[in-house]
Design a protein that fits this description.
292 residues, mainly alpha, 2 domains, 14 helices, 0% strand
Length: 292
């Protein structure tokens, strides 16, 4: 039987398919391993004394787990346990920003995707244009405005500038462009108001886009260092990134304790992702909305 025979060509095609599938699996496993290595390093180093973290060759498994690193990370050098308050601040700010981003962006995105009005595309392009302006360019005017309004050292000052984003509007619009018009028309025939259609039909069926935006908005504020550093002078109102900066500058802090701080700071983000991962993964095609 020659390779040019139908059976020979079929066997070759099956072999190439299986080889490609196996190669893809190996490449994916290698990529996952590379991504996990820093997390394993952070977790192991958080249970070591500082000299072991910087020793060469590096020992991946601690000789004796040093749980005191976590106690020091939470208590701080002054023993005030301010990190717990900073964690609560980050949770309040990040959760509020995530909730408002989802609500406002989905509302605006629904209007831009499903309502035809004069200047709709101009409005959308204007919103998108704001994405081209770096935050550093508006940071000082925004800070001066916040000071004039008395928003310094307050949750309002931390939350208000980030209640929504152009990216969130883009994300929701792209997803809702593909939302079936038939469902909306049927609801209107049944006498539903637009607000009820948005609340009961559109929002409830936009789970993947909502979860994607919520996770990204939460993580963006959880990692935000520059604005909280500007707007909050009191330690009681600082967030996790600000605490990490201060903790790493303390004389008594070593590398193991710094890793313990980082592990604690990472836990809520991991918990949120794994809680909403089902919807987040479904939102992988969220950018493929139909063209208007």
């Amino acid at each position: 039987m020659t390779s040019n025979s139908p059976k020979g060509r079929m066997d070759r095609s099956v072999f190439l398919h299986r080889a490609g599938k196996a190669g893809g699996t190996v490449a994916l496993a290698a990529a996952c391993g590379i991504a996990i290595v820093p997390l394993l390093f952070m977790l192991g180093a958080s249970l070591m004394p500082g000299q072991d973290v910087v020793s060469i060759p590096y020992r991946w498994i601690p000789r004796e787990p040093r749980w005191a690193n976590y106690l020091r990370a939470l208590a701080g050098s002054d023993g005030r346990w301010i990190y717990l308050r900073n964690i609560m601040n980050s949770l309040i700010v990040s959760s509020t920003v995530a909730a408002t981003s989802v609500f406002i962006a989905s509302f605006v995105g629904y209007g831009l995707a499903k309502f035809r009005f004069k200047g709709r595309n101009a409005v959308f392009m204007g919103i998108m244009a704001t994405m081209m302006i770096p935050f550093e360019a508006v940071m000082i005017p925004l800070y001066l405005t916040a000071v004039k309004l008395g928003l310094q050292d307050s949750y309002a000052g931390l939350i208000l500038p980030f209640m929504t984003s152009a990216f969130g509007v883009f994300l929701m619009r792209q997803y809702l462009l593909g939302f079936p018009e038939e469902l909306l028309d049927a609801a209107r025939i049944d006498g539903c108001s637009e607000l009820r259609i948005y609340r009961s039909i559109v929002f409830k069926n936009a789970g993947p886009a909502v979860a994607t935006l919520a996770i990204l908005a939460f993580r963006g504020q959880w990692d935000n260092l520059l604005w909280p550093l500007l707007i909050s002078q009191r330690e009681e109102l600082k967030t996790i990134p600000s605490y990490i900066v201060r903790f790493t500058a303390e004389i008594g802090a070593d590398e193991g304790q710094m890793m313990a701080v980082a592990v604690i700071a990472s836990l809520p983000v991991f918990a949120l992702f794994f809680t909403m991962s089902k919807y987040f993964l479904q939102g992988a095609g969220v950018y493929s909305g139909s063209k208007s």
